[in-house]
Write a structure and sequence with these properties.
Blueprint: H1 2-8, H2 16-27, H3 31-41, H4 48-58, H5 67-79, H6 84-94, H7 102-118
Helix pairs in contact: 2-3, 3-4, 5-6, 5-7
Length: 119
Amino acid sequence: MELISIFKNRLALTELDTMARLWESYQINDTEKLIKISRKLKNLYPFIVTAVKAHIERIPSNGNVGKPSKSLIQIMNELETEEFGPVFREFNKRESIYGFGDLQVKRLFDEIKKTANNV
């Protein structure tokens, strides 16, 4: 049902030159340009600024893990479990913007557990 609704409300891609510049900025990880270009597109595509910010937040920086890993750690602590199933379900509720599948989350989950065991 939701897929049908999304399909019916789809948007045509316009501003192809601007979209191409956005993609190029993504490829070279130019976060400043990503933000600047996404702001130009926000009237046509209101979701794009949010998506770009989520992308930038997922990138580890200054010795900190990215937001998905940070969220997983928080969920594991709040649920007081290292069992993947409940953690994965809660991650999907909180961080659906990323659209991560179970294998992507499991990889991050396993990295967190491995790092915690090596400390």
